[in-house]
Design brief:
The protein has 186 residues and is mainly α. Helix content is 64%, strand content 0%. α3 packs parallel to α5. It is globular and about 50 Å long.
Length: 186
């Protein structure tokens, strides 16, 4: 048990790493400037054209955002639980508003109209799988460490093959019994 908790004192929060403190916000600001510059000021070097839609941007940005935020979330999910809940709630609400607006209110700039469920699966399946892998590995590790063991241990491949074999290979007691005509007394 932590000595500070045993005495009733609140533990000191760990200082933020430079990645979280400076690099991530700097990358968000740079991306925002590049997007605004491409859309509003027609900066050709950004690769963003005013005719591009949100759907096109999502194809480019969803996976990198998941890959960038996943390690940060994984390290800080206990300390910043409330903050992460707020972030996920805001992102979820924005997603719902954009999807409803794109389909129901025909917001053309979203580019959602005409996209099917399959298109959405193509967009979101890989980021969802990548985001869930650490949780899957953590759960799998916990179940192996202290969970119930199954009764079936499996056969070591050489033991199984030497015992059973297959009749058409001529290996093992089953094949010998078939060749001798006595039947298998295994």
């Amino acid at each position: 048990m932590d000595l500070a908790r045993a005495r009733g004192a609140t533990p000191r929060p760990e200082p933020l790493s430079p990645l979280i403190k400076w690099v991530l916000p700097g990358a968000v600001v740079a991306l925002t400037i590049a997007l605004l510059g491409g859309y509003e000021f027609h900066w050709s070097w950004t690769g963003v054209k005013p005719s591009d839609q949100l759907w096109d941007l999502l194809h480019v940005i969803v996976l990198p955002v998941v890959l960038a935020t996943l390690p940060i979330w994984y390290r800080t999910r206990q300390r910043w639980m409330m903050e992460w809940h707020v972030v996920f709630s805001v992102v979820g609400l924005a997603f719902v508003v954009l999807v409803v607006g794109g389909y129901a209110f025909n917001w053309g700039w979203t580019g959602f109209k005409g996209n099917t469920l399959w298109d959405w699966l193509e967009l979101l399946a890989l980021p969802v799988v990548v985001a869930s892998l650490p949780l899957w590995f953590a759960t799998n590790k916990r179940s192996r460490a202290g969970g119930a063991q199954s009764a079936w241990r499996g056969w070591p491949s050489s033991l199984w093959w030497s015992w059973v074999g297959t009749p058409w290979t001529g290996v093992g007691p089953a094949s010998a019994a078939i060749r001798s005509g006595t039947g298998c007394a295994c």
